[in-house]
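Can't paste images in this forum, so I'm doing it all in text. The chain is below; anyone willing to post the predicted structure tokens underneath?
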Amino acid sequence: MKKSLKILSVVLILTMIFSFTAFAAKDEALTITSVTSGGKDLEGSKIENAAVISIVFSNNVTDDGTEENALLRNNSSKVKVKDASGNAAKSTVAAGADKQTIDVTLGGIDSGDYTLEIGKELKAKNGTELGEKKVYSFKVKGDGSGNGDGSGGGNNPLTVTSITVGGNNLSGADLKGNETITVVFGRGMTENEEANKALICVKKEDGTKAEINVGKVSDKSTVTIELKDLEPGKYTLVLGKDIKANNGNTLGQSNDGKDYTVDFTVRIAETTCECWCHETGIKAILWKIYIFICELFKLNPVCECGAAHY
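Text version of the structure:
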């Protein structure tokens, strides 16, 4: 009887080990959860020429925890949109709403048949690769009467194709405060340039406006916004809902009647300060505990380098 119990125990242990190993392996594997545009599956669908395609993966594919973020750069190069002839179509690849999502924004491309291609070398933070090339076919609508560059008189809605700084997505970015933001719209923007300028601003966390310079429209649909030495803190780029395209459509019509906003931060300049408020890892965790106590008793509110502790 004892021998049978021992054998049964060994079997149970081996089963548990096998199950755990299988589960862990499954958890580590990189797969694609969904590929959608406008909440619908991309495969076989018909979408706008400046639509956003969201690719959701099972693992983190956009953030390796470093400032350089080589993971996102590598994965961005593995995602391409191609036309029926196999040529690259204008699009922007950026990190999506979370670390498992990559967004592909079409650049006001012509109507026709296209494919979204995701390379097999696309990699997760844990080192696993997709392992198999994925291809999704879709069509771009041709409702407008323009010439395909966003400057015609078609009735396509006004959308934002991309908002970047130095080629990277502005959303969630940590800037120095003197960069230039590039906004690419999905339609021509030359006819209402001055009125549109007045509807673009950058707001501080307290709601007041920061100093910026909005440039002239270039390439018929691109607007640059120069930041003027912003102080460290949280900011929001606001594109007013009444910004108007050449065809008369406003941004609010494609954004539920709301302003289009993107949040970002301006970081504290690099310093030789040795205070733990600048540290990462375990020191940063201990610092949060320490400064919580300080805040309760109104102690040490400002760092010796000038940074606010709370």
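Helices lie at 2-28, 70-76, 193-197, 282-296. The mean pLDDT is 84.
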